[in-house]
Fold this protein.
Amino acid sequence: MALDIYLVRHGETQSNLDRVFQGHMDTQLTERGVEQAECVGRWLQSTSFDTIYSSDLARAANTARAISESQDGADIVFDRNLREMHYGVLQGIPVADFASVLEPYGVASEWGTGAFSAKGLAPPGGESIRRLRNRVTRFVARLDAEHCPEHHHKVLVVTHGGFLRVMMTVLLELPTRKRHAFVFDNCSVTRLVRDAELTRLEYHNLVSWDGEPRGSSVPSE
């Protein structure tokens, strides 16, 4: 038997539109973000989930609630481990302004490079990629522990883009530096199937705003 894992990134926020670091900021969905969440809920309506897990931050929690309504009000397990990476002093700052914010701390030139992650550096007041990967690993261990391998369970995980990129590397046993190979649009759906031997990627970053799913499909063999 296997565990079906469906991954959904939260709906659109104003900070997404403004290209602002959100991290642990409790930002809200835009009107379009609410529509996206309702749409993905309808798309997943025929898929019955044993458990829905969600970050406790509002943008993910409200996305999960919209999906839950299409699941006859399925219970949601809120987990702080599913929060986005904590960006420290960068939170609330436009992505384009990172250098001027980090310059006084002497790490501006290394931000966004492999060296920043390899050295275990973190934005001042924030979280390193290593710490984020530890959080992801704890959550994956929770999935494995809570879902019996003798049964075919389906779970939905609603969380954030940075978390999801690292989660893909954990599930697929890839180096953390490979996380940038994965893109997650707002309210996109990614599906993996995990058993005792391996985790297989079925499809990645599918969106369905017009009724026709689009994205990076990975055929099963």
Remarks:
- The first strand starts at residue 3 and ends at 9.
- The helical segments are 14-18, 31-43, 58-69, 98-102, 114-118, 129-146, 161-171.
- Residues 3-217 form a domain with the Rossmann fold fold (CATH 3.40.50.1240).
